[in-house]
Structure formats: C-alpha cells, structure tokens
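ugh finaly. both done.
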Amino acid sequence: RSGQYSVIPRVAGGEITPQEMILMGAVALKYNLWTKITGAQRIGLFGANTWHLPEIWEDLVRGRTSFHNEAEKVSVSIETEGMESGQAYGKALRAVKSCVGTSWCR
C-alpha cells in the first residue's frame, strides 16, 4: 500500500552466520531499511523502495556491499558467500523449531 516492500533472505532453520548478519545489517544501513526477526525465524528488511529492490538483491545474492556514513561514524564493508531469497508465500513447511546441536539444546 505504501509502495515499499520487504526483503526476506532465506535463513534455513533460523541458522545464520555472523557474516550474513553483518551483510544484512550493512544492506539495511545502505538503503535505510528497518529490520525485525519474523515469526518464521528469518530476518526481514522492510521499507525498500521499488527502485532499490534490484540493487538490494544484488548485494545480498553476491554477498558483497559497503556502506559509509560519516555523520553517524559508521563504515562497513563485507564480502561473504551471499544469500538467496526466502519464500514469502506458498505451500511450504514453516516455523519449524530446530536444535542448534548438543552444546546448546537443554
């Protein structure tokens, strides 16, 4: 309705690497997006303008971006394996709770 979109990369079972978290944060800063953890154990980037969508997905898929804001004293440059699109709708298994291993499950 507002002309803005959500961008939700795939985060299988809620497991995300530190590099992927940094990548998502840098992309959010670069395009002035707000973030939240969804009920499906993914991290959503919200408030994307239509004209930024191809650039946002290019940054996420190729796994590289950089952002510099001197006023806020923030500078980020990241290169990682990249991410793929998560399925927003469809007939799919969702909200599955997963165990992160024997060290963390109690």
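ok and the 2nd:
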Amino acid sequence: MTETPTPALPRTTVQEHTTVRAPKPLEQLYRDAYAGFGWSVRSVSERPPLRPLPLLPAFRARSVTLDMARDRRLHSRPVVQELQHAAETSLAEIARLDRSTRVLPATLAGALGVLGAVFLALSMFTMEPTIGPASVLFGALGLAAWAAGALSHVPVTRRVRARIAPRLAAAEDLLGDIAGQAQHHLC
C-alpha cells in the first residue's frame, strides 16, 4: 500500500493590528518607536483638507494615522506591553514639548498684533477734524506693536527651543532606551 504525502499547509501568522494618530512632524519618530516593539506600518492615512466655505483656504490635517500590525506570538507579551505603554507616554511628552515650541511664540506675536490693532483703532477714533498728537501717538504705538509682534516671533521661538531642548533630548533618550529593552524581549 502506498501512502500519498499530505500537502503542507501554508503557515499562517496571526497578527494583531492597531492604529495610532501621530503629529505630522513626528511621524518618522512614531514609526521608529513602534518598530522597536515589533510593529510594522501597513498604511498611512491623512484626513483630506477641510474647506469650510468654497472661497476660504483649506485647513490641512496636522496628524496622520498609522495602521500597524505585528505578530501576535510574543514571548514576553506583558513585559513588551508595559514597555510600549512607557514609550507611548514618552512619545506624548515629546509631542507636547514640540507643540509648546510653536504655541508660545505664536501666542505672543498674536497678542502684540491685537494690541497694535487696538492702538490703531484708538488712533482712528481720536482723530478730530484734523489729525492731533494723540492720534499720531496711538498710530505709532499700533504700528510699533505690530512690528514687535512680527519681529519677536523668531527670537522667542529660539529661546523656547533652547529652554526645552534638554527636556526634549532626555525624553528622546528615554524612548530609545525603552525601545532597546523591548527589542531585547522580542528576540
């Protein structure tokens, strides 16, 4: 009697999937961080620009959505998940620090611009039949506030980045250490 060999079934890999929303400027950092935990990016999606009215400019999305998958058969799943949670906390801190380098300078420049607009409005309201000294003074203060807002943006941005740089570097180092520990547990 002859035995017929049974065909080998293809080996399937059971995968787990997740989606993560990442700030657009930090997309590569998120990809690298999650790769350290065995995740591979399957697709990246970005919301289409939002246009509230036809004649207004579109608002671009400031984040991307990463669709990722990894092999479900992890040897030390609880340890890897705990390390991944620590890495996600570190990524959130990095994103918060990165966002703060843009928010404070823009807020200061915007506040000075509004102050300039108030002074220019006062200049217009104090005009009498002829232009008086108060009108000229308020107009000069308004233009000076506008110029100060525009010119202060870059130095304030540099100062904020210099102040935040050590904390940002420490958070990135911590993220690298956590990813290294996770790689050790994945192998």
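summary for the 2nd one i guess: The longest strand covers residues 15-23.
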